[in-house]
Design a protein that fits this description.
It is built from 20 helices and ten strands. The chain is α/β, with parallel strands linked by helices and 491 residues long. Helix 11 packs parallel to helix 20. A five-stranded parallel beta sheet has the order 2-3-1-4-5, sandwiched between helices. A five-stranded parallel beta sheet has the order 7-8-6-9-10, sandwiched between helices. It has two domains: 231 residues, P-loop containing nucleotide triphosphate hydrolases (Rossmann fold), CATH 3.40.50; 237 residues, P-loop containing nucleotide triphosphate hydrolases (Rossmann fold, 3-Layer(aba) Sandwich), CATH 3.40.50. It starts with 18 loop residues before the first helix and ends with a helix.
Length: 491
């Protein structure tokens, strides 16, 4: 891409337009995507001193500042280094109808570290492709620019900045390093661009030999690419990219295979509980001291006992080391973003534990059953969730998912108990009764979820919940087993 780039053959079809005129046209496109609720992500990357700030300034000059945000990504902060690689980028994705502009981006590390080996590059590009594909599938428009310049131009701009006492601070070690090793970086950039020039999000190389000309080209291309993106999205709405409706019933139904008569007597339960809670406390402390983040997910049918299992698991743990995240219906702000956005914000940093009482799996359960998500939306969510959990795993996170199951008769008995107990009546809602009316639909969705998202790196632990004591002990045992395993792997 870069090595074959011919600066002498460079043409800009937008050179006939004034910058202000293009800016006003982009402003109209901004209003259009706002009305349609389409998120737009614009990435402006390139050589150091290539004019990224100049281009971005012209890009936003005529836009409504309420509906765009520019984020600058450089070396990650200590807080960001303690989170999964994509965490800081998910935090800045555009809401529906908004524009997000990244000065540098997911590609910062890839572009600026020429020492990365092929395996590291492949892993990061795979993570980046997953976030770009997930945003695209969520009807986002993604536009990626790389500003290219000659070696002599880079040196000239570095010298100009050095001679300007008000702007000399803009020169960084990266500027000098890229110029001193121009050919090495040229090969490196070319390799990264080719490997991340995905069919669904292409790179657009723009000559920045003339910054004003580059600015006009970026403006003009952004306008055209937004309109092309709108055409693509409306093609999806009309069914152009929609999969054929299929039989979604999974061949395997793990919930049907459970033995629900498993029980513990009181004496055995008390003995095991005390031993396991102490062991869980010690293991949680070791996970903290070794900087291993932990994500525990609790799902299950209504009244299955998720809250009780979480309470017994954490009973002896230091409360400063874990947080229980209760997932309810998304807020207005959360609904204005990709459905995974609100969960990324809550992922633990190194050493911390986050326990999700319900989670991102609502997408393929309640949103599926209640038709809150379209078939193509919840159907692709399985792979999106698997990719997200793989990203957590790659960061060294212990990911465990507990699904607690009771049968329909036991659920009814527990509902009636809640009705008759003043301190538990708050747990019973109209939604619980509505969900019960669609029991078979929910079980079908749960079975498919368990089959399609059970992975080696983020396994489902199905818990027989008919007897609460048995369920609580099984959760404790599973946590102890898997915590020991990951700690042994880290030694």
């Amino acid at each position: 891409m870069l090595k074959e780039y011919d600066f002498d053959d460079y043409k800009n079809p937008y050179s006939l337009f004034k910058t202000k005129e293009l800016g006003e046209r982009l402003s109209r496109a901004q209003r259009l995507i706002g009305n349609l609720g389409i998120p737009v992500l614009i990435i402006v990357d390139g050589w150091e001193s290539s004019g990224k700030g100049y281009v971005i300034k012209d890009l936003v000059k005529e836009l409504n500042p309420k509906y765009f945000k520019v984020s600058v990504f450089e070396n990650p902060t200590e807080e960001e280094r303690n989170r999964p690689f994509l965490w800081r980028f998910w935090d800045k994705i555009p809401g529906y109808g908004d524009i997000a502009i990244y000065d540098r981006s997911f590609y910062f590390k890839l572009f600026n570290d020429v020492s990365l080996n092929d395996e590291e590059i492949e892993k990061d590009i795979k993570d980046i492709s997953s976030i770009e594909k997930q945003l695209l599938d969520d009807k986002a428009i993604i536009i990626k620019f790389f500003l290219h310049q000659k070696e002599t131009t880079q040196q000239q701009r570095i010298d100009e900045l050095k001679d300007d006492k008000f702007r000399s601070f803009l020169i960084s070690k990266r500027d000098e390093d890229q110029y001193d090793n121009y050919d090495e970086y040229l090969d490196h950039f070319d390799d990264i661009l080719k490997k991340s020039d995905f069919t669904f999000s292409k790179w657009h190389v723009v000559s920045s030999e003339d910054k004003k000309d580059a600015s006009n080209k970026v403006l003009g291309m952004t306008i055209d690419l937004i309109h092309q993106g709108i055409d693509r999205i409306f093609g999806m709405e009309k069914g152009g990219l929609r999969k054929e409706l299929r039989d979604y019933a999974p061949q395997k139904k793990p919930l049907d295979e459970l033995k629900l008569d498993l029980k513990l007597d009181d004496q055995e339960y008390d003995k095991l509980k005390d031993e396991l809670q102490f062991e869980a406390r010690e293991l949680a402390f070791q996970l903290y001291t070794k900087g291993i983040p932990t994500v525990l997910v609790f799902e299950g049918v209504d009244a299955a006992g998720k809250g009780g299992a979480i309470e017994r698991l954490t009973r002896e743990m230091d409360p400063r080391g874990y947080e229980v995240v209760t997932t309810s219906a998304p807020s207005v702000l959360e609904s204005n973003h990709h459905y995974l956005w609100r969960f990324y914000k809550n992922f633990p940093k190194k050493g911390d534990m986050k326990i999700f009482d319900r989670s991102w799996y609502g997408r393929v359960m309640v949103e599926r059953v209640e038709n809150l998500a379209k078939i193509e939306e919840w159907d692709r969510a399985y792979s999106e969730i698997n990719q997200m959990e793989k990203h957590l795993h790659n960061f060294g996170t212990l990911v465990l998912k507990f699904f607690i199951y009771i049968d329909k008769d036991e659920q009814l008995a527990r509902f009636k108990d809640r009705e008759n107990e003043p301190d538990k009546i708050y747990k019973l809602t109209d939604e619980d009764w509505r969900n019960r009316e669609k029991w078979d639909d929910h079980i079908e969705a749960m079975n498919e979820m368990l089959v399609r998202t059970n992975t080696e790196y983020a396994p489902w632990i199905i818990v027989e919940g008919q007897q609460k004591k048995y369920a609580r002990i099984k959760v404790l045992k599973a946590f102890v087993e898997h915590a020991k395993r990951i700690l042994d792997e880290k030694d």
